[in-house]
Write a structure and sequence with these properties.
Elements lengths: L1 H16 L1 H4 L4 H13 L3 H9 L9 H9 L3 E5 L5 E7 L7 E6 L15 E3 L4 E2 L4 H12 L8 H14 L5 H10 L3 H15 L5 H14 L5 H13 L3 H50 L7 H19 L3 E4 L6 E4 L6 H5 L1 H23 L8 H23 L15 E4 L2 E4 H23 L1 H11 L1 H6 L4 H23 L14 H11 L4 H22 L2 H18 L14
Antiparallel strand pairs: 1-2, 1-5, 2-3, 3-4, 6-7, 8-9
Helix pairs in contact: 1-4, 1-6, 3-4, 4-6, 7-9, 8-9, 9-10, 10-12, 11-12, 12-17, 12-20, 12-21, 12-22, 13-15, 13-20, 15-20, 17-18, 18-20, 21-22, 22-23
Amino acid sequence: MNLLHRTLRCLALLALACGASAFAASADTARQTIVRAILTEEPAPRIAIISSLIGSGDEAIAPLLNAWKEDALFVYAAPDGAKIPVLLSGDKDAQDTQVATRVDTGQPLKSPAGQPLRLAAANLTVVEHTSALRRAMKAVLDLLDLSTADVEKRVRAIQTIGATQNVEKLAALRARQKIETAPKAQLALREAIALIGLKDPSAEVKLAALKELEALHTIASADPLKAALKEAEAANHPSLAAAARTALNAVDSHLVTVNFFGTLFRGLSLGSVLLVVALGLAITFGLMGVINMAHGEMIAVGAYTTYIVQNIFGDGMDLMIPFTRIGVHLPGAHLTGWAYQSYFVVAIPLSFLAAALVGIGLERSVIRFLYRRPLESLLATWGVSLVLQQLFKLTFGSNNVQVSSPSYLSGNWTFQDIIFGWNRVFVIGFAAFIVLGVWLVLTKTPLGLLIRAVMQNRNMASCMGIRTERVNMLTFGLGSGLAGLAGAFLSQIGNVGPSMGQNYIVDCFMTVVVGGVGNIAGTVISALGIGLADQALQQILLNPVLGKILVLVSIILFLQWRPAGIFVTRSRSLD
């Protein structure tokens, strides 16, 4: 057995040395190679044939070798005497037969009449395997992903091999390095080869590996470098220990940079979320002076609108008519691919319109009777929020519903180990777009002129012939519509539920008050400042709850010093 094991290792190393040529093996070549191995009876040649597959990226290799190890490969003796390796798969029928697939072609095995055959395992010769052969198969499977066409999958395979620091796989990595063209995979190969070099008995090789890891300064190399430093100190090798410390310092410096820019990005994204959520309230509360406790439910209206649009683009959905037991089925378009993924593009304007209509209805039915009566408006809108929450429960159910993110908002982009989530990048751009749109509406349109006139001096505007009630209605609808846009986005980063708006109502008022009531620019600065402070304190204190508490305490102290917020809104109104 020891002789056989040594033979196996020699053959595997020989195959690894020739790995560059093996990487180009086609699907038919890999299948034919496995067929030759099956039909070869001698153990050593069979192991050599299997080992020749090392470095091949053919997708047919893994299922066939796994089937071989699981005794699912058989040899079928054809009527003409030919031996045909087959794979049996699928459920057995009453005669214990299964679907037979040819190993050499991957096509169903057919009779002379051209009909697919079903065979019973008991009537066939199983393809046997030994422990040495299974080790050869494992060597092939471990390195299979090194040649896959998928760059991300290839990089993960390289990183996995590097993390194991298996010296026996160094030859395969070097062979791959000679033909690798993807920059990301080339960096992963350099790191993996250097990590394996830390296990080399030669001090010169270890020193070169430490220099390489210092130049790469990847976060994943921190633990191996710490282990290398302990080994060097235990062996009393000053040069290796010094090189390991230098490499660790480079990694730590890189980690500080990553944490800084990562915290900055997370702070901007959190501030953008607060800005999107609070911008509508900055209009209804800041400009109109209405304490709208139902603002969170406007967010939920936008989120549920996105949920409905998604289901209409998909397979449809069932709804309950509130206060009845009557169910309604909304048919779906059964779209797939990019047609289905475009649902979010349609949901954005519909979320604005749905929330704006609900807000206009709220203003016409309740708010218009409560202007300049802040306490009554607070209590009335609080009651409206409870009613809307109950309507959501009766219509959609008490449980949260899931809105799946489209493919263009899923995933992330990594640069220098800093992860940029697409949905977070989107909310930053989305917030900037909304701020620009609100500024244009308020400063460059007739509606904006009327809104500013009515908010500054309602009586004078009325005397000038402005229909103040209509302006109030449109202004409240604009603020509610912006809340609906916030709900559409928030549906992409969390679940949608009847009380989801209550999670943001306090943050909304806090952001608007700190920025200065009625000042859009102050709301922007306040949202971004609170988001950055929250993420920075969490990073420093390593405690999210304590970080949020300190942010809240800081806001309280700031308002004690500056009760009107960052920007004080001045008006000639004597109301």
